Amino acid sequence: MPTAAPVRHDWTRDEVLSLFQRPFNDLIWQAQSIHRQFFDPNTVQVSTLLSIKTGACPEDCAYCPQSVRYDTGLEKEQLMEIDTVVQAARQARDAGAGRFCMGAAWRSPKGKDLVQVARMIAEVKALGLETCATLGMLDDTQVTTLKDAGLDYYNHNIDTSPEFYGEIITTRSFQDRLDTLERVRAAGINVCCGGIVGMGEGQTDRAGMLHTLATLPEHPQSVPINQLVAVPGTPLGDREPPDPFDFIRTIAVARILMPRSYVRLSAGRSEMSDEQQALCFLAGANSIFLGEKLLTTGNPDTEHDRGLFRRLGLRPQSAEPAECEHTPAQAAG
Ligand code: SAM
Ligand code: DTB
Ligand code: SF4
User: Fold this and answer.
1) Is the pLDDT of residue 109 over 50?
2) What burial letters (b/e) apply to 97-109, b meaning 16+ CB within 10 Å?
3) Whose CA is nearest to atom 6 of ligand 3?
């Protein structure tokens, strides 16, 4: 057995950029070789999303259908009742998900709302699912409340490079994102952090985004790579999809830089061919969202995904041990 590649946190930006510039076959070969040193190459972690509070968000993220600033025709909804969330989580579990991710269109949660979300987390965890939440920026007290409720993962994306960030969001800074990520990490909650491809960023921005993630004190345990879902009414609503090979390259470079992390082939699968998704798995993606809705937009049919797994000989990993590099979290159950 060859020794596993070391996990590095000292990548330079030039090294990351030169990975992006490798010939495609060389890049995919390198990514798949590394993937096999750390993971079973035929197993894919499965999560399901639920929007627990939809729309009317005060932030101005140019990609997002939930911002109050853009007319996307989305019906806004209050924070869901706990029973409704638990019922959706049970359905997700029965459909084969191992993790349930609750998303809220907030800049940051308010006191009484967070108490309700903490109850949801505890009840979803009691179903035997891993729990994930994405609620916006958090302070220290809020992070502790979520940890105490049994939260396994917190999703908080940096979305793009530090340089391109201001083109996409003006109502908060890149540093605000890093601050929340640091609080989450320090509390021993697994970090889920990635970004979006297809917003008009260049290769140097994709390199800058992954460089930021790969040089954090701990690599995020989960790295979602989203393809922009271009929603009419948002400033990015008429963007054409990126070159599929650029998307696959981003997956491959994430896999090489962060070999122990789960890399999620996240939003945008509805616009991808089965062949493109297969190349993403070959490039080292080993997590997806299962279920016909992401937060507000569509995702492939569950039956179609089951068929794709069968055709590719992939096995869903329903319940994964939630493990930090340095801080083992409680196993779900
Ligand atoms: N409001 C919280 C926040 O922004 O952190 C949590 C929810 S927010 C919808 C979660 C993530 O979804 C965003 O950071 C972004 O990366 C992703 N996202 C939102 N709209 C998207 C779109 N149209 N296409 C791809 N990804 C999107
Ligand atoms: C992530 O990186 N992608 C998910 C999850 N984390 C919260 C969200 C995708 C949202 C796509 C647009 C929508 O459905 O509203
Ligand atoms: Fe609000 Fe999150 Fe959408 Fe930005 S991405 S507008 S913060 S819901």
Assistant:
1) yes
2) bbbbbbbbbbebb
3) 67
